[in-house]
Amino acid sequence: MKKRKGREAPPEERLYRRILGHGLEGELSLDLVCDTIRAREPNLKQNEKQLHSQIQETIIHACRKGELFIGKSEAFSLRTKEAKEAIEASVRKFREGAHEGAMLALLKGEPIPDDFSLLPNEVLRTYLGFNLVKQLEKNAQKKSGLRFPDPMIAMAWLMRDHFTPEQMLDARLDFRRRQNDNPFPREYREDLIKHAETLPAPSMAEDRVDLRHIPFVTIDPPDAKDFDDAVCLIDDTLWVAIADVAHYVRPDTALDLHARHRATSVYLPHCVLPMLPPRLADDLCSLRDDADRFAMVVEMRIEGAEVVETKAHQALIRVKQNLSYDEVLDKELFPEMMELSKQMKKRRIGLDIAGAEIRPRIREDGISLDVKWPSDATEMIEAFMVATNEAIGHLLGDAGAAVPWRCHSPPDSPEVDSLNARLDALGVDIELPMPSHRTSGQSEESETLDLLSAWAGLNVETEQEEDTDDFMSSVIDSEARGEMLQALRDAQSVASKLSDSKRRVVDQGLFQLMQRAIYSEENLGHFGLDLDAYAHFTSPIRRYPDLIAHRQLKAMLAGKDWPHNEEEVAEMSAHCSERGMQAKRLEWELVSSVCNMHLMNSEESATWNARIVGLKVPWIFLDLEDDGSFQGRMHLRQLGGRERLQIDEHGLTVLNESGEVLLNLGQKFECRLRGLDIWSGSLDLAPV
Questions:
Q1: What domains appear along the chain, each with residue ranges and CATH number?
Q2: E-assigned strand segments in 373-420
Q3: Whether 72 contacts 26, CB under 8 Å
Q4: What's the pLDDT tens digit per position in 419-472?
Q5: Which of 408, 463, 483, 599 is the most exposed place for a label (fewest CB within 10 A)?
């Protein structure tokens, strides 16, 4: 019976022993080594050329590593036996230790200290397959007791007392920038900051309409600095003023190129990564009260809560008051505007899927978590901004402008079919219709022909039965869109009468049906808002697509050529869509990290009677507060131990090997913290 071979030593170690065995010491050369080996090993199978090439390759590689061979391949020496023993002793020592300086350097992106080495007075971090940094990562994971696969999470946990919350978040931002996964620099370019400081304050000019007599107010969160929209209702006219950022940010200037690269502001728990320099975002463009400001004003005449006439003005305004949402509610201000917004909302069939939003705040005395729900004041401003964006979309669309449309597509048929199967398996009497993609003016027969042609891989052009504007030709027919939206609203209504567990399954399923909104040069309409034409216009301080829409509107009012053509808008739409998702991922991650920092101070024995909101191998997803604000996940192994658990095909139940149901989607489940990730925001849960 053959003996099992152990680990084969690396080529450089075998050559090291071979050279020492022949008594060679001091400074050596490739020729000396080859000549000695040929002379003292008469039974060599390699010829002279092969031996020379093989030894040369090993020595070159070994000298680069500097582990057993020191110097260059032309003139090198071997580590002494004493140095080799010292290295091996360091390897044994570092197999258990955790070097704080090295962990802090890795987290901060700084050079690793020289004393993090296998030899004193020399930087040596690898030895015959042993990697000091990777060993540190293993040690950190073991010492932390966490089971997240990313070792940086373990190091952040061990080094948490060396960072304030703000420093930890900044370290994470810098780390993601080094990974090319954060295109939003923490600091703004100094030359652009200085340029913005030289820009003059607004004053009346010939190309402006003086609307300083309109009593505009801004209504925002209490900590807002960049006030980009103001509203006023006078009789049957709704006035909406939007900061005129395009006056200051001209196309293809350095300021414009930098804003275009960022494409959006990113709002994080400890800071804002702004699209524009502070002088513009927080001062010149911000619609502060009692200050003259340039604005693009949209005048909308209202009949029966519907906008029947729209005019746009390049104006100078003076906001009367900056208010917070809470002030408006507490003082019961603007009842007429409140009533108008409610009537506007009733007119739309749009799906209401707004939920709780968790807002962590880092304060001197610690971290607080505020859960914000939509209020009458927030919904009022939202309704007015939606109306403005829609009105501008139609204005620019009718004029033939290239626009980065904000598009939201209906659910895909496979997802609807899957949800219907899940609800049927759950015994819920709800069946959603397959979504229609019939465009404006298209008959059902023509839609069917298009679907069959697409299925067959053919390109068959069909005629529109009704004349539609060019910018509306690709929009889903309003009747077809309304039928699907009404079906979704009806499903919500039915779900509200179900048990808590089944209601959450339906709500979660409807939420997951929704596609992500994107920017597109082609107007596809906005399914969720039930709108034919929707262009972002109301936040140019923090979104680049809004700035494009402002420039196009200015050109339309002045009778000039469009500053942005179709090709450029197509390119920018794709870029802004990607930047928006990157910003959203960054916000989600850092909010979760701060929430986890808050949980660090809670009792380890704290438990939640959480709601199971998702089952997907190998995870059980849990909503801790049952309001959508705070979620974590638990591995199936935490529930079954060594037993192999399964999840059924519809993601409704967890089953053991005998087919017994252990958990149901939507039920409550008592869980506890198993691991906190303050580096990237994950939350590891376990059964109580």
A1: 11-79 (1.10.10), 83-162 (no CATH), 203-401 (no CATH), 410-514 (no CATH), 602-687 (2.40.50.140)
A2: 405-407
A3: no
A4: 999 999 988 999 999 988 788 766 556 655 554 554 555 555 545 445 556 899
A5: 463
